[in-house]
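Pasting as-is:
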Amino acid sequence: MKSTIVKAIALLAVAGSLTACESMNRTQRNTAAGAVIGGVAGNMIGGDTGSTLGGAALGGVIGSQVKRR
């Protein structure tokens, strides 16, 4: 339970730090946010490095395609 709380706090801290990326365009911000969220989700689900990397990769791809025109 404690590690889940720590991971959630880390996710919020990273998500908050993404707001400082003013020079990024929307696609770049969505890609970064997707990678962070996907990495955390992959780690929470799988609990190992491979799951974290897979989640980050998948989240980055999905994030780059959000609201793309």
